[in-house]
Write a structure and sequence with these properties.
Pnp Oxidase, Chain A; 7-stranded antiparallel β-sheet; alpha+beta
Length: about 130
């Protein structure tokens, strides 16, 4: 399951809003250590750098990340969910930044930050093949 998380190009980040309701957004990330994911706010057009996901994480650090594979051949379907705790950081180590830039080369041309670090403590998944 961890390899599927590591290799996925995009996932869905689930956070909890201050009112307790769920908030989900697509996001990109890199696996930087055993069970640690790093993501960054980049300089693509947004409503600002103070995104709802950051506000949500600061209020409630429990998060969930979902990655999946869909194919018309349903025998190839799978999904993996990584649950853990996140923190928002103004900066990260050069190794964590490099992991993002290696996975997503366009990041080397963007200002990055703040960052989200997710320490994964539980993996759950399903695979149509039963493995």
């Amino acid at each position: 399951m961890w390899e599927r998380i590591r290799n996925a190009r995009v996932g869905v980040l689930g956070t909890i809003r201050p009112d307790g309701s769920p908030h989900q957004v697509p996001f990109v990330y890199a696996a930087v250590l055993d069970r640690v994911l790093v993501s960054a706010v980049d300089s693509k057009p947004k409503s600002g750098r103070r995104l709802a996901r950051l506000v949500n994480i600061e209020a409630e650090p429990r998060v969930s990340v979902l990655v999946q594979r869909y194919e018309d051949d349903w025998s190839a379907l799978w999904w993996v969910r990584a649950d853990g705790r996140a923190v928002v950081s103004a900066d990260v180590s050069s190794g964590r930044r490099r992991a993002l830039e290696e996975k997503y080369p366009a990041y080397s041309r963007h200002d990055l930050g703040p960052f989200v670090l997710i320490e994964v403590d539980h993996l759950t998944g399903w695979d149509a093949s039963g493995s």
